[in-house]
């Protein structure tokens, strides 16, 4: 079976599934998570914590990372379910990039702080800016508009600073203003903050489940 036929069959299957669910409630489940977003991209982490005595024998002990238990989401319509899983799919694509940016930023700041003069810091930032563009531009070009807007928020979540604040601090206010004005032409804002308690509560739920290897 060629790839085109596979996509046609999958589209028909999903169409039938959601058509059958019209007028019914759809409950989020592990099977639906896998069907709509694929297998987990992270494993559930565990850490070796040493040896302990148990019934006269020494056995290895482990600590497991947090495991999250949420009430199951109940969607009122297929459209609502698809919206949630679209968010989850987008997070799986852009969250690893946000994590990488956080690591890169920490390394950049650590090296910047080690330089004694402003001249050396400015020279280093010019080199760092070129390297960042070279590293991330090809990947960012592949993101959809929705994924790009999500990445802006996830950078704020990971770095505790908006993209605008980061650019202003390390590249200057002019560049920050220019990039933000450019983003505004497409309805985006580099000043957008992450709000896990209200606007981004479903996004935060997805992130925690993805981080723990549960989605």
List keywords for this structure.
two-stranded antiparallel sheet; 10% strand; disordered N terminus; 8 helices; flat; mainly alpha; 215 residues
Major β-sheet profile: 2 strands, antiparallel
Q: Major sheet: order of its strands? A: 1-4
**Residue runs with pLDDT of under 50 for 5 or more positions:** 2-22
Helix/strand order, N-terminal first:
HEHEEEHHHHHH
Determine the strand fraction and express it as a percent band: 5-15%
Provide mean pLDDT, rounded.
Answer: 83
Quaternary assembly: single chain
* Separate helix tally: 8
Q: How many strands? A: 4
Helix fraction, binned, reads 55-70%
Distance between the termini: 29 Å
> Structural class, from helix and strand content?
mainly alpha
Shape: flat
The whole-angstrom Rg is 22 Å
Question: Describe it for me?
Answer:
- The structure is a single chain.
- The chain is mainly alpha-helical.
- The protein is 62% helix and 10% strand.
- It contains 8 helices and 4 strands, in the order αβαβββαααααα.
- It has helices spanning 3-20, 30-37, 78-114, 118-141, 145-159, 163-171, 173-184, 201-211, and strands at 26-27, 46-54, 57-64, 74-75.
- The longest helix has 37 residues, at 78-114.
- Mean pLDDT is 83; it is low at 2-22.
